[in-house]
Here is the input.
Amino acid sequence: MNESSIPGRPLLEVHAISKAFPNVQALADVSLEVSAGEVLALIGENGAGKSTLLRILNGDYQADSGEILLDGKLAKFASPREAHTAGIRVIYQEPELVPGLNVAENIYVGELPGRGHFVDWRRLNDEAYARLAEFGFEREISPTTLAEQLTPAQRQLVEILKALKQGVRVLALDEPMSSLSDEEAQRLFKIVQGLRGQGVGIIYVSHRLREVLRIAQRVAVLRDGKLMGVVPAAECCEDELVKLMVGRKLAEVVAREDNCRSDVVLSVEHLNAPGVHDVSFEVKCGEVVGFAGLVGAGRTELAKAIFGATKVTSGQVGVEGKPVSLHSPAQAMAAGMGYAGEDRKNESLFPILSVRENVSIAILERLRRLRFVDRKRENELVTSLVGKLRVKTPSLSQEVGKLSGGNQQKVVLARWLAREPRLLILDEPTRGIDVGAKAEIYQLVRQLAADGIGVIFISSELTEVLGVSDRIVVMQGGRITGEMPADGATEEAVLRLAMVDHLNGDATASAN
Amino acid sequence: MSDALKPSQAASSGSASANTMPRQGLQGAGRRILRFESLGLIVALIILFVLISLLAPGKFLRPVNMMNIALAISVTGLVAMAETIVMISGGLDVSVSAIVGLASVAAALVVRGTGSWVLGVMGGLAMGLAAGALNGGLITKGRMNPVITTLATISVFSGFAYLITQGQAVGVSNDTFNAIGNGRVAGIPIPVMILVLVAAVLIIFLARTDIGRSIYAMGGNPVAARLAGINLNRYKMGIYLLSGLVCGLAAVISTGRTNSGIPTTTQTDLNFQAITAAVLGGTALAGGKGTIVGTLLGVVIIGTLNNGMIILGVPVFYQMLGRGFLLIFAVLLQEWQMRRR
Here is the structure.
């Protein structure tokens, strides 16, 4: 049992830590403690300082003032290496695996078993398999799968395994569940429980409040770099926190005006593509269709196929009654579609370009006179969108890579809104975004619907799918397994459809 | 990753627009004309000037010598600017020296054959375009890696040039044509004027047009660019065509200067110099970043260094060493600047 060596003393103590960046006091005099076997949740809006604190613990940054005590002893980490040696490990939102190496190699990177310079591959794979099996993932992730072929959720898991193998004393998880479906989140939950039993102190940063309250013993709230307070989770303000996550009510709030040019905005018939099998459905004008399902159900593949980003083998797609050619995103866009992918860092953002340029990139042709970009019109358009979406940025010229996740997502949304699409496909739009911004995005989606835009809302968070949508479509294994109106739909009903194959043990209805 | 560099002001209402309007200054496209890092280059250039002047008093700072430098870099400058655009888009064209050689020969042959300088110029440009088309076609339709492709086409273009000239230089005696390379207007050499003109066009093109924006986007994140509706293949083709065309223009100037079309250009390491200048000027090897002005500063620095070494009588092999170290230095500097952010 790995307990803190001084009984009665917390495992990790953080005293009066402060850190400033140009223009911003990221942390001001923050003090926290974590006991062995305890889960301390850290919540707060984007920019509240959670990430900065984690980076200081991980040795990526150095605090301007204050101290860190591990087991009562002063600890100073000049680099992540030192932090890891001391037993502190932070796992960030975006998994940092080497795409060209396989799972086993990534888990044991830098410490491959073997003699001298020769790697003992057998042992490497066995050990990796054992690690995977410890947490029950050995059937879906093989030690020899290349990291670049894993889904974001699986990469997250491998990243955690990588951290765990070293015998960790304090583990900090930054938004660990943001790319996991509810089912996978459950498994992570069990992993965390297991670690608690081993006496590991855990800092858990998340926006998924229900999980946070279930998994943590205490909740620390940061706002604008200051610690607002630490509350025992049991007593905590579940209602207030949950209220922030918009519930069903929203779907009723916005009255629908008659902005429809045609009844059906999108019609998909018998679409077949990699990962998509015979999918047919419709999106009506002003309707938000939520796509639910476990990770790997084929929703992203479907979205990409509709948008022309991947090859379609057969099937028809029509926008407002007119058939659309599915060879390229440009054609889909010309037909009136917009698409915000789930991996905004790699699929949507141009990190060193400015906010202004990121927003206007998809609509340059409407902003130009004789190929010259009309900067005045561009500024007007971008300013109005940035204001409407409440993007927090010091200026339109700010590099988008420097904004927080929530604001980056808003920039992506602004880009598509600029085009006034007929159909907008959103894939995990609230991933890694704080509660306040999530609420804003839900409202935005409803407003778009009221304006007559059809929205496809893909999400693995059942609560939000049920809350924002008018109708739910459930997928599994690349097929639609069911549809239902959101009104009256229950999470169980949706889950049942999302796991139909597992439940029936139906060997014939197997996926790709 | 969400990070802590959150701006301190919060936009809490619709009036966020008032707070987010930037000071009119080096914003967006403006930033793309002159980057902060370019100031460092100007300082380096000044230091270089001072150093050489001290080491070779009287010989370096003469107007005649300054004009020599300008002339010497006009060909390299054109090629370097084309290379910059290719690099910004995420590609690389190492065949530029070979294209210049081929286009030079083509231009000379046409002039000799038709007696018309106009046709000669067109011949050079057309050959450059054709070479660019081959590069572009292989890279887009053939889905080939740009570096490997243009590496291979070096041999194709050079080989072809040798073939049509049987390895001999092709003399050009058309005075008007040669004037392109040797003539002056109001005391300014024509090649320098061409360089400045093309530079102006390219600067505006990159910074102010939607095509320019899309090029930066392509280089910065090709996946996102495609998903934002940019036709990557069409742009790539256009960019390699442009590279070929500009090389053709450089070839015309070079041919005029030397009064002959030479299968290998007088500077066989044009591609090396072009890339060095671009990197020195802040163009990222990975794409998405770079400016014409920066590259031109790089070209001037290289030209000044070359000129200085010649004036000081530095042996040729040391010159090669110098150029090599310069590229290494340029890349290291870029790395260091990226870390600093």
